[in-house]
Fold this protein.
Amino acid sequence: MKSDWYKSRVVRVLTHVLVWAVVLSLPHLLDTRHGIHHPDRDEIERRFFYLNFLTNLLWVAPFYLNVYFFLPKLFDKKHYLPYAACLLASFGAVLAIHAVLFEVIIERPWFSWLGATGFLLPQFVLMVAVSMTLRLVNDKLQADRLSQQRQAENLKTELSFLRSQINPHFIFNILNNLVALEQMKSPELGPTILKLSGLMQYMLYDTDEERVSLSREVEYLQSYIDLQRQRFGQKVPITVLLEPPPVEYEIEPMLLIPFVENAFKHGVGLIENPGIEISLRVRSGVLYFSVRNKYNPDSIEVKDKGSGIGLGNVRRRLKLLYASQHRLLVSHGEGWFLVSLELNLH
């Protein structure tokens, strides 16, 4: 993906090359003696500059050996003695090459093994510390990426499971509608079957997408409510106000239907003066959705086997998908059960 350009191998290699170029240039950049000439010392200083530059360049090999071999193959597996031996061997190799370079470049009998060891040891310790830090950072970034991938896969799996829970409940309700229409010998049976076909197409195919248009979801709600109106007729007053969204927003599919299903499930039956009120509107990018239904206070704790699918499901989906971008209120009193949802659509 284009957004992952910074993760490419070429970019990482160029970054390392740039960092090493800066590090190797620091001794020259920080030299405060530019412009001050001592004829007797210019030649020897130039030789020492070449010696130090080449010696610093030698640290590149043990640095990457420590990052990509010594640490993962030895230290991470708790082979501490072999790890220490490899570090000492790499230090000894750099010290030996430095001695050879000293004899070739300086051409003076000034070399001291003890002095060279004292000069190179701080650089060696710094190299080990920086390479270990780089390895720790790389391991942490890789662990974070794997964790994010696992979370994304878990989220996708859980959302698919939660969405699949809705489908049987929905199908049962619609089949009940068709049975009722058939029993009433209603002429609306044919058009209702066609409408059901459209609903099933939406449920089985359109909901495979992560998001659908809000207007399509509203159309789905309206069709479902129309089917329920056909089923109950004048027995249950249904007040509906579904305003078309002013802008084409997107929403998780089948997110709102559980509220409506629960209203018809628990708002009809042995209830005095039943009633259902549904409203939906969008203002300044915020969806305001509410469902009210009459209920029987004496049977509020009585639920059938399928009653846990609705609100518990949608609460979980809202938490996974919209986190702090929603506000869900559920209350009941004075014979009315109310669910109110505010959802930030941006």
Q: What stands out?
A: The radius of gyration is 37 Å.
